[in-house]
Structure formats: structure tokens, C-alpha cells
Amino acid sequence: MKTTENAYAKINLFLDVNSKRQDGYHGITTVMQEISLCDSLTVTVDREASERKITVVTDSPELSLAPTDNLAYRAAQRFLQRINRDANIGISLEKKIPIAAGLGGGSSDAAATLRALNRLFDTPLSDGELSALAAELGSDVPFCLHGGTALCRGRGEIVTPLEFDADIRILIAKSSDEIKTPRAYSALDKKYSDFTAERAAAEPYFCELKEYISGKRGKIPELYNIFESVIFDECENARKIKEDMLSFGACAALLSGSGPSVFGIFDSDSALLGAKAEFDKKGIKTFSVHTK
Ligand code: C5P
To answer: Is 191 a catalytic residue?
Structure first.
């Protein structure tokens, strides 16, 4: 049996860290938005196999296929453990989402694997069970299962869908900086003794974004991501990309997740294409996408 599944990337329209938790994670408040940039997975299953075997192949030379690192592999492994079945699973992964870019590519591949397998095994897990399994794989995986626009709390795994029908044009530009998420969180811990003052500073941005999403405000407000305050100190390229994005005509621009991708929101195709051409001239890789 065989199925294909798209794994869509995400951006964060708002991201604030509220607390450092006992379990080593951070309490966050984030608004995630699914975008049209996607990986494509083809998943095959031999349900009659007597042994448990999982194989992942990909067209991406950068992606680690080590079972401990690859989130699609781990998703398949956890799924079989959870339903207590042996099977032969093959996953072919066509990568379009840049790796370790703050766009949720690995998380989305894991979520797509779970969706595909639940379908191929005739829905053994309910939506709630699938979300719980997703949360074990990573904080962003439950959002990626759901997609759309959502307010995510806890360590990111508590997902509340938001109604948002705007079709927004987005340009993503990726600097070549390498940023590891745990290191980005450590940098925040070093900078802020607790997150109380920053929470107060972030609140007006959150309120304005909620008004925009609910349609009470026509123009996109200025956006907020607490990671900018540490990542832009370390990665001059990412800071410059944000400045350029705004000077090339974006209505708003923000670092996505812990970076290094920066996205810009444009109010016309011509403005977006103009900005894209400017980044092309500088040799900076861009992706022209829209909200899903
Ligand atoms: O949940 P995920 O495996 O994607 O998280 C990767 C790492 O990012 C965690 O091990 C942790 O260091 C950090 N993290 C965090 N707080 C969050 C999410 C991630 O500290 N809410």
C-alpha cells in the first residue's frame, strides 16, 4: 500500500518565551502559520511483513538519515510501537524546505509521516492520540499535524486553531548562518534572568496581531519574535536580511522560529518580486510562498 503526503513549512507570526521550565524546556506563546512551501513524502507499507523494518530515502544530501536524527524515521518507529504492529515501511522524502532554518521542516515531515501511516493502517489512532504521539516527537509536531493558523502554548504542543482567511504573500530569505534551537534558547537564558519584563513588552504586539487575524484591523502590525534579540547579535547576516526585507518593500518582516530564516509580508506580487530580485542580486536564497 502506498500514499503521498505533503509536509508544509511554518512561520511564526509571534513568538514569546514566558518561562524556563523544570523539564529543561521553555514555556512559549507563539502564533504559527502554515505556508505553501512543502516537502513531499511517499510512504509505502507492507502490513504483512513479519519483521519491523523502516527505510527512509531522500533527495537531500544535507539531511541526516541516521535513525536517531531523522524525524520521519522516528515518527514511523513510534507509530509502530504505539499500535504494537510489525510492518515494512518505506519513506521517500523529497525535500524543498531548507533544513534547520526555523521553518519546521523536520517537524512537518514527522507530522506528515504520522498522517500517512494512520491512513495506511485504517485509522488506528484518534486525532487526540495522534497529537499526543506528535508531542513526543517534538514541540512543533502537533501544530504541523493540524496546520492552518494556530496559537501554540506550553512548550509549543498545546495547539488552539485560529480562524484566519487572509491569503498573504510571503518572501522567505535564508542566511547561511547555522543556528541550533537549544543554543538559541540558552542564549535567551543568558540574556534574561526571567522573562517577566519581556512578556510585558511583547503583549502589545500579540494584541495587535490577534486583532489583525480576527479582521478587526486591516493592516499587518509590526511583528515580534523574542529570538531576534539574541540571534541578530550573533548573526549579522540575518539582521541585515530583515533590514533589507523592509527596505525592499515588505509591510512587516520577522525572524522565523530561532532562525536563521527571515520572512517578509508583501501587499502586492510586484513588490514581492521586486524584493526577490534584489535578494537574487546579493546571492541570497529566497522562497516566494503564501499562507495555506
Ligand atoms: O521539542 P523539540 O525537540 O523540537 O526541542 C528541541 C530543543 O529545543 C529542546 O531540547 C530544548 O532544548 C529546546 N526547546 C525549549 N523549549 C521549547 C521548545 C524547544 O527549550 N518550548
So the answer is: no
Q: What is the pTM of this model?
A: 0.96
Residue 180: active-site member: no
Cβ atoms of 191 and 229 within 8 Å: the answer is: yes
Which letter does DSSP use for residue 89 in this model?
Answer: E
Q: Which amino acid is at 177?
A: D
Q: Is 73 exposed, middle or buried (0-12, 13-18, 19+ CB in 10 A)?
A: buried
Which atom, in ligand 1's list, is nearest to the CA of 137?
A: 3
C-alpha cell at 160: 488552539
Whose CA is closest to 72, among 33, 43, 35? 43
Q: What 3-state class would DSSP assign to 56?
A: strand
Please tell me which residue in 140, 174, 244, 276 is annotated as part of the active site. 140
- Tens-digit pLDDT string for the chain (292 aa): 999 999 999 999 999 999 999 999 999 999 999 999 999 999 999 999 989 999 999 999 888 888 778 999 999 999 999 999 999 999 999 999 999 999 999 999 999 999 999 999 999 999 999 999 999 999 999 999 999 999 999 999 999 999 998 889 999 999 888 899 999 999 999 999 888 878 889 999 999 999 999 999 989 999 999 999 999 999 999 999 999 999 999 999 999 999 999 999 999 999 999 999 999 999 999 999 999 8
Q: Report how far residue 252's alpha carbon sits from residue 36's, in angstroms, rounded to the nearest whole number.
A: 19
Q: Are 171 and 242 a contacting pair, CB within 8 Å? A: no
